[in-house]
Design brief:
With 397 residues, the protein is mostly helical. It has 15 helices and no strands. The chain folds into two domains: 174 residues, MFS general substrate transporter like domains (Growth Hormone, Chain: A, Up-down Bundle), CATH 1.20.1250; 179 residues, Up-down Bundle (Growth Hormone, Chain: A). α13 packs antiparallel against α14. The radius of gyration is 21 Å and the shape is globular.
């Protein structure tokens, strides 16, 4: 149980850092006197560092085991956050953000790899629950950032407080890591594990895998990476364009338009809380297909409607369908790759992150050539590719 708590805390803390960083960016921009172009340059350094961290450090994760790296990375991420607040100028900020991104990208892969180990050890689905805690942490971080900015608390002092908070999951991740060698998932039987006659059935239901006669590891990794990319294109598009669409295309007020992303985020949280039970009931294959169809159809219907409240309902439906996809994609990758989970997850998470970064820009280019309504249909079409390709994985459930 202790390993599960430690990984849960890291997921929640990771969300806090992401929400905190995003909410304090305007203050940091003003403190350094950056233009929009200069801030964009700094954020490109962060993105490049994230992708490089995901792709280059995967072998280290596999060699050490995710449990050994988890606490160190969590603490280092908070230190990088503080260094960003202390940067005196743009060049220094770019260097720090490249480092910050590398640590954050590596931690993203590591915590998901650790979650796969914990899930396998407890013989039950937990990945959606872990990601739900990330959502809670993100909302908490964003809320605390807004309160800190309103109270006039400096970015440096705010980020130092986050560093202090980071010490808790970092220490627990070291103290409560999964016993055994790198990549193992041996957990002592305790009150949190149900040991009864149904455990074999639960294991069969909980561990989706590619059958021996099925897809190769390389092809499975590429397919899962594409699934993650399509899902993250949609998530990035909603984050950057939903409010703009409601306000400029449907004539909604600014306050109502801003509710689109809030409703989308709440729907994602609800979906992730229930996700583990739903996927256990449906099976991984059907869950992926049904979730993708729900998300794609909801987004398409919402964008094609002319009423703002219907568009918001469409974004909510997208959140319900989208939220469960990435946790199950990571679960499948971990089960298929076994001892190479770090390398497989690094590619899949990296492809997803590229989709998250490229998606909003792609929407902008398509919108310029056509219209924003047409552009927002693109993520819907991409998500519909997922149920068509899921059979290629030949999942056992």
């Amino acid at each position: 149980m202790r390993a599960r708590v430690a990984v849960s805390l890291v997921f929640g803390y990771f969300g806090v850092v992401v929400g905190t960083w995003t909410s304090r960016l305007p203050t940091l921009k003003n403190r350094l006197g950056l233009t929009d172009t200069q801030l964009g340059t700094a954020l490109v350094c962060f993105a490049a560092g994230s992708v490089l961290g995901m792709l280059l450090l995967a072998r280290v994760i596999d060699a050490l085991g995710p449990a050994r790296a988890l606490g160190t990375l969590a603490l280092t991420q908070a230190i990088a956050l503080v260094l960003a607040a202390m940067a005196p100028n743009l060049p220094a900020l770019c260097c720090v953000l490249a480092f910050f991104g590398a640590v954050q990208g590596t931690l993203n892969v590591t915590m998901n790899s650790a979650a796969v180990d914990v899930q396998r050890a407890y013989h039950r689905r937990m990945m959606s629950s872990f990601h739900a805690l990330f959502s809670v942490g993100g909302l908490a971080g964003a809320a605390s950032g807004g309160l800190a900015a309103g109270a006039g608390i400096s970015v440096r002092h705010h980020f130092l407080a986050v560093l202090c908070v980071a010490a808790v999951p970092a220490v627990l991740a070291h103290a409560w890591r999964l016993p055994g060698g790198p990549g193992t998932a041996d957990v002592d039987v305790d009150a949190d594990i149900d040991v009864d006659a149904d455990v074999d059935a639960d294991v069969r239901s909980a561990r989706a895998h590619v059958t021996a006669r099925g897809t190769s590891l390389r092809l499975a990794t590429v397919l899962l990476g594409l699934f993650a990319m399509f899902a993250m294109v949609a998530e990035g598009a909603v984050g950057d364009w939903s409010s703009v669409y409601l306000h400029e295309n449907l004539g909604a007020g600014v306050a109502f338009a801003s509710s689109a992303f809030v409703v989308f985020s709440i729907a994602m949280f609800i979906s992730r809380v229930a996700g583990d039970r739903v996927v256990t009931s449906l099976g991984t294959r059907r869950f992926l297909q049904y979730s993708a169809v729900l998300g794609a159809v909801s987004l398409g219907a919402g964008v094609l409607s002319t009423a703002p409240w219907l568009a918001v309902a469409g974004f909510a439906g997208l959140g319900l369908g989208l939220a469960g996809l990435t946790p199950q994609i990571y679960t499948i990758a971990g089960d298929v790759a076994h001892g190479s989970a770090g390398r497989a997850l690094s590619l899949i998470v990296g492809m997803g992150y590229i989709g998250f970064l490229v998606g909003p820009a792609l929407i902008g280019f398509v919108s310029g050539a056509t219209s924003l309504r047409v552009a927002l249909l693109l993520p819907s079409l991409l998500i519909l590719i997922i149920p068509a390709l899921v059979p290629a994985l030949r999942l056992s459930d």
